[in-house]
Amino acid sequence: MINIFKETAAKELVEHYSNIPEELALRIYTSRLIGKNPGLVLHGGGNTSVKLSQKNILKENHQILYIKGSGVDLASIEPKGFSGLDLVFLRKLRNLNSLSDEEMENQLEIRKVVSRSPNPSVEALLHAFLPHKYIDHTHADCVLILTNQKDGISLTKKALGSKVAVVPYTMSGLPLAKEVLAQYEKDRGIEAIVIINHGIFTFGEDARTSYERMIEYVNKAELFIKKELQGKTLIPRISDIASFQIAEDAIARAAQTIRGACAHPIPDGSRRRLYAETRNETDLIKISLSSEAKAICASGVLTPDHAIRTKNQMVYIDSVSDKDKDLKNIVEQRVKSFKQSY
Q1: Least buried of 60, 111, 193, 314, by fewest C-beta within 10 Å?
Q2: Per-residue pLDDT tens for 62-87?
Q3: Domain end: 229, 253, 284, which one?
């Protein structure tokens, strides 16, 4: 993963947004860098924040947490995509033993600096409790590949090193915010925190540091995975290899059948038909020929970011029948099962 921070581009954006605090403009810049990388987040996923001092209508200085609004796309985020919150008050909530989702949502809503700003991220309390000026949070694929293993905690620690705290999965909201704060207070020298089956948080006193730590630790995860997989392969089934030479014909027939099975009626009485896209990268072909292919397709996605677009599981068909009628029956049955499970 490439570090694409450019000092000149950052300065240009600060000049472009000369009507807002420089800290927020820099927050926008690095948020967009993160949002443009699908290996870190997809549209609407992840969140970023910055803490700064700002005068209210009475010219009084207030400590404000600006955090990405829920569902806002980091790749194209604008100033209005952030929600400004009363930081001093939010930090008092860490003294509570519990806080329902409904009450947390209410407290965040009534602590907005601008009433019409978007709903704050569900991780707003976590961002508030940590002391760092800038915080970045992603659902990076490479990090989740580690955390989603049976021995995810030990693997993640081994891959990322001593500057990263690893926390078992905890529901977002007050419980997670308090757990993350406790981990930081145990070791104030950490540079990142990983939540098992969730994602990674990095932080720093400037936007560049927080962003570059994100890239650094995601790269560490990627390199660790590559090293662990070196020399290992998914063993293909001989029967599949024998039929691979006629794959083009099978793909064409399967695509037409899939489009037919997925077509559905719309209010005007016609049927909405979808495009079928073929992805035949080497890694995907190897996986499709593996004896583990069916289990992999049923294992679920790495992160809810993916589920929004693909749902949780894939439809698996072990072969393409030579008979059109049989192929149609198989595809329609699998698509029906997919709909029912969804």
Answers
A1: 60
A2: 999 999 999 899 999 999 999 999 99
A3: 229
- ∠110-113-116 over CA atoms, to 5°? 80
- 248 and 225 share one domain: no
CB atoms within 10 A of CB 222: 19
Note down the domain range covering 323: 238-341
CB 190 within 8 A of CB 165: yes
Partner residues linked to 55 by β-bridges: 61
Whole-angstrom CA distances from 110 to 9, 115, 132, 209, 242 are: 36, 8, 24, 32, 64
Nearest to 146 by CA among 287, 303, 8: 303
Q: Collapse the DSSP code of 119 into the 3-class scheme (helix H, G, I; strand E, B; otherwise coil) and give the result.
A: coil
* pLDDT tens readout for residues 28-75: 999 999 999 999 998 888 999 999 999 999 999 999 999 999 989 999
Query: Is the same domain home to 186 and 259?
Result: no
- What backbone torsions phi and psi does residue 53 show, to the nearest 5 degrees? -95, 135
**Domain count along the chain:** 2
Query: Containing H/E element for 5?
Result: none
